[in-house]
């Protein structure tokens, strides 16, 4: 297969995840410091004076520099050399300020309008609905580099006909297979289920196939939904999502709900599997298959489990379409020097060296085609590419915020047997429509 794999080329569309985390990714929780209590004088009659509570709610203060970039701890080390090079070449001071990934978006919304925010942030494309609505990110003209980037990556950062980011990485879920326990790639999901259940019944594994189900996770479940013909929102002719067309209770969506119920009855899907248990089971050889994203590779590599990544096989004759998440650089609408910020993201972060450095820091396939081709000789990266080629961009429209909680609740009710599967999905769809309207 050509190294590009036509990687996501069929999209006019996503088309993860992210996480996170799902979720762009399952993001690691950010450690929050708790102020140490002051020692109290031992006078039983008096109560210690209460310390003023936290500075957690205070907005992050912009670093002192000509150009300020906000990035998380994973990407800061990879980004720093390019920031230093740019600063030296342009005789300006560039500061890469480290924040928790989840704090970057909220920090920009609060600090940007106050003049204390960054010029550039690294974030996920599905933040766009909130960021554009709040007027805190500026459009970026990608016309000079668009042809060098994966089409789905550009589309993911397009909102209301304008592009708002320079993409550098893509992510989606795929199938991890323990090559000792399951040497052959399953041709269909039905074949996978048969192998998984046989290994369970023989006591060779604790659970044949694992993916996060506790708490319920519509993100990881989405390939099953789409394989049955279900969808979250319909697509318009221009490739944008149509929030008036909700597909959770479509014929395909309800068929997917029934399939989830059947998988629980047969023991294929365990509602007790957390993300951590998935890592433990598959990494420890107690599961033959896992469905997750590239963020799990380091854990599995550390565990030393032999694995191969391939697309999730067809389910009931339908092709699974995972959510595709895209990460990239966005320029603040309140940037002190918008020209300087645009020059950095367009000229420095669209190079092969820069995108490969970001890939080395966090193994998500690069959005720059030339960089992707350099890493596609890794069969696992190639596997994620093939899986994503059938995917759809995670909706960045504001209406998506109305989906997650209700759909998660539907899965929980389905898993617990509190509602029939179809009823759970129908109830969720009704709630979502009400929230959107």
Count of extended strands: 14
> In one word, what is the shape?
globular
**How would you characterize the largest beta sheet?**
6 strands, mixed
Distance between the termini: 46 Å
Strand-pairing-aware structural class: alpha/beta
Q: Helical proportion?
A: 25-40%
- The low-confidence parts are 1-55
Estimated radius of gyration = 23 Å
CATH third-level topology of the largest domain: D-Maltodextrin-Binding Protein, domain 2
Give the CATH H-level superfamily of the largest domain.
Answer: Periplasmic binding protein-like II
In DSSP terms (H or I, runs of 4 or more residues), the helix count works out at 15
* CATH architectural grouping of the largest domain: 3-Layer(aba) Sandwich
* Average pLDDT number: 88
Helix-strand pattern:
EHEHEHHEEEEHEHEEHHEHEEHHHHEHH
Under CATH at level 1, the class of the largest domain stands as Alpha Beta
Total individual domains = 2
Question: Which terms summarize this structure?
Answer:
437 residues, alpha/beta, D-Maltodextrin-Binding Protein, domain 2, six-stranded mixed beta sheet, 15 helices, 14 strands, globular
Structural description of this entry:
This protein has 437 residues and is α/β, with parallel strands linked by helices. The chain starts with 66 loop residues before the first strand and ends with a helix. Helix content is 37%, strand content 14%. Helix 7 packs across helix 15 (421-436). It is built from 15 helices and 14 strands.
